[in-house]
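Page 37, top half.
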Amino acid sequence: MDNLSSLSTPRAIPQPLSQRTSRQRRRQKAIARGLRMLLGYAVLCLFGIIFLIPFLWSISSSLKTENEIFIFPPVWMPKLPLWSNYPEALDYMHFGLLLRNTLFIAVLSTVGNVLSAAFVAYGFSRFRFKGRSVLFSALLSTMMLPYQVTMIPLFLMFQRLGWLNTYYPLIVPAFFAHPFFVFLLRQFFLTLPRELEDAARVDGCNPLQIWWRIIVPLAYPALATVTVFSFLGSWNEFIGPLIYLTDQKIYTLSLGLSVFKSSYTTQWGYLMAASVTMTLPPLLIFFATQRYFVQGIALTGIKG
């Protein structure tokens, strides 16, 4: 009877040693992968905090008195925040006028950079012609020239054109395709399948219509990247306005902030308040286009 009951009771079948070993290895790899990700995020958070400290200190200093700014050891939170520093500083430096001037230059320069770079990049990526590689290499080689080399010739050229003390020297060059933006967009255009162009040609589209109706709508991530770079460059431009602008009524924010610093050298609270206010528009634009910006940076390096 005992023998029959023992035969009817199912027994657990032991797993082979190789299966248990492979399962342990997979578990160990998953744990190691999780630890590497945790370490990576910790390092990124650490560097993010380090880079964020100067901006936080600027915000803190903009709400302090002169004594609290230079006190040692430093005090992060003021005892009584001086919110009046912001309206007083913006009123002293005529922030509304400078903001309007800067936005006018930045928007037109961004439009020029995006359109011209997209047009030139389309030609380098889609058309096959003799000497294309040589011309593209020559275009990229201009990125090696520092601005100090071309500054005096450009000044003399704009002087003969009668463009000094106008916005033309700050806007017109943007419509002649910056080589860095051409490189970014060309890399992205190379990833687009040529079958789309063939289908558009069958439907009767010419090259200009293909560029505007097919290529440009598909290149939103790369165009967003160029837009952010171009806007930030125009917004923070200081050397150009310093050289070409002499009338304070057409100054930009960066130039006006420099004049404000020289005029109110001891008013550090006002200076920090104006600096923080000037930083806000680029931050808002970056966060609004962050998803497309990161996607564009990732996709422009897929194909060489």
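Page 37, bottom half:
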Amino acid sequence: MPNWIEVALTLDGEGAEAAADVLRRYVPNGVAVERVIPGGEAWPDEVIPPGPVRVSAYFPDDDQSPQTRRKIEEGLYFLSRIYPMPEPTFATVKEEDWAEAWKRGFSPIRVGKHLLLKPTWAEADIKPGDIVIELDPGMAFGTGTHPTTQLCLQACEWFCHPGVNMVDIGTGSGILAIAAAKLGCYRIVARDIDEQAVEAAIQNVAHNHVEDKVIVQHGSIEGFLTSARHFELGMANITANVIKQLAREGIQHLIYPYGQFIFSGIIHDQVEEVVAALDQAELSLIGQRKLGDWVMLITRRREP
């Protein structure tokens, strides 16, 4: 089996979003966007100033790798003419080590009042009242270190209660669906268009013993739009462009009128255009929360 090449660069939140979009064009296994947090600690209840974000991805070290590297370098070069960013680093990772390489810096962290996020391979100081979520994200997005995920986990503590059902679009590692189940939601459908993310989410759901509450599926919002099936709560921790596209496709139809839909993965400069798109989709802004450069929008579906 081939080795892998890691491409990585560290920059601020807005630049990270743009760089990730470039990498996604050429890297089939997904892109990790993680906040660089000293000591691995994250405190979402505090105002955190804009800080460094590490963007990384892996592609096979094979006959096509020089062409892939050149395309990535060219894409980032043209992007740098618009938005300053550092040179990417490229490193060869052995096949037996590549799946472990991204784990650097992922250690147990506390989010919100009760959630403790713990890698499956790490020990943690578990205290009374902790709700423990054990994760092995693989190459899927969602370790809890990124501000967008932390914001959504806070929202889970606010809105996920017994008797509530939820849909999670772009579930990644399954972290939000697992949190929702452990906080009391009785039925959660978690979807992702990335097959590796679906595989990781299924494994994490089983590892956290919530498979009786969480159904993981491959896909986006297709099927829901023509179905009578609705949810009280929706979450989508994705990107601004995807959120706007889903708004045009009718994502509001996934939830009941007056239900809440939480959107994250949005840079502060993108808020106005995303809010406008959601408003056109009968989703009214009722609140927002900011963490560093990133914003979470809380919306409610209007009566059609």
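Margin note: DSSP finds eight helices and 14 strands in the chain.
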